[in-house]
Design a protein that fits this description.
The chain is α/β, with parallel strands linked by helices. The protein contains 11 helices and 7 strands. The protein binds adenosine monophosphate, fe (iii) ion (2 copies) and zinc ion (ZN).
Length: 289
């Protein structure tokens, strides 16, 4: 009797490096993807593509296919919405202008958050810089790491549950375009847009169909349903929306290295879905061994 086929061809389509708020360099991420038995991995740092070159250089050594990507920060009212962008042209002018504006706002916002925290805790901007590589997209995780280093909290997660939680009043939002603008920009840059972790707020806060319809009309490709932080009660509704709007379903870990409990490869995307993304993306190419 033939052996059951090994699970081959699957990819983890959402992972972060030190270029944003992951704790592993792009090259180390590629090595970890190989160790996790992945066929492919997408590097999707927040609002930045500067890790692609280092990850690409590690492809021959690791044998893992790199799908270049980015996690685009957007905002719908007071709610932060993340849009995954695969195979974009990293030099597209409109996209570059928008991500530069987001990163600049992330920086001033982080400085302001640190100023506010500094009134009550021993914490300086240098503490945050010590947790960040040059040019990285700054986020609350870097402030969390500085709070850990100062001994104010034990872990990143504890910082998010406490000092960095919106209810404490230290944190504030940064500039981000609305999701529709992001979907249009991603398509204009030759990329393939997928709505990231759309179920983290539970069944009652899933995107309304009429709003999703507008994103689909603008070129939304899929929903990231298999994600460790999507709540189980939201998933049936999301699968129904994917079916109704003809959207692809992706799976990914949203790995942040040691910065989050998510394990690389714990959620994955089927090979045929990855192939469709590759077929639709024209702004850049996957890097194969
Ligand atoms: P920001 O980009 O500043 O809005 O911070 C949000 C980022 O922090 C997201 O990319 C999350 O992945 C990360 N994050 C949120 N909650 C946690 C947590 N409990 N532990 C570690 N990272 C988290
Ligand atoms: Fe993150
Ligand atoms: Fe996200
Ligand atoms: Zn992410």
């Amino acid at each position: 009797m033939p052996e059951a086929p090994a699970v081959v061809g699957e990819a983890d389509l959402h992972a972060h490096s030190t270029v944003s708020d992951g704790t592993e360099s792009p090259a180390r991420l590629m090595r970890q993807a190989a160790a996790a038995g992945l066929w492919g991995v997408a590097l999707t740092d927040h609002d930045a593509t500067t890790g692609w070159a280092e990850a690409a250089a590690a492809v021959p050594e690791t044998g893992v296919v790199l799908i270049p990507g980015m996690e685009f920060s957007t905002r719908e009212g007071f709610t932060s919405v993340h849009m995954l962008a695969y195979l974009i042209d990293p030099l597209h002018e409109g996209l570059l202008a928008e991500t530069a504006r987001i990163r600049e706002s992330r920086l001033t916002r982080a400085e302001e958050i640190v100023r506010r925290i500094g009134r009550d805790y021993d914490l300086s901007w240098d503490d945050v810089l010590a947790q960040t590589i040059e040019g990285a997209t700054i986020g609350r995780p870097h402030i969390a790491d500085a709070l850990v280093a100062r001994g104010h909290v034990a872990t990143r997660s504890a910082a998010f549950d406490g000092i960095l939680h919106p209810r404490t009043g230290y944190a504030q939002p940064h500039y981000a375009p609305d999701p529709l603008t992001a979907v249009r920009l991603i398509r204009a840059a030759g990329g393939v847009p997928v709505l990231a972790h759309p179920g983290t707020r539970g069944a009652h806060r899933v995107i309304p169909p009429e709003r999703l319809a507008r994103l689909v009309d603008a070129g939304l490709f899929g929903l990231e349903i298999d994600h460790p932080e999507n709540r189980d009660d939201a998933k049936p509704q999301l699968r129904e929306l994917a079916r109704r709007f003809g959207l692809a379903v992706t799976g990914s870990s949203d790995y942040h290295g040691a910065g989050k409990p998510n394990r690389l490869g714990e959620c994955r995307t089927a090979r045929d879905v990855v192939e469709r993304i590759i077929a639709e993306g024209s702004g850049s190419s996957p890097v194969t061994p």
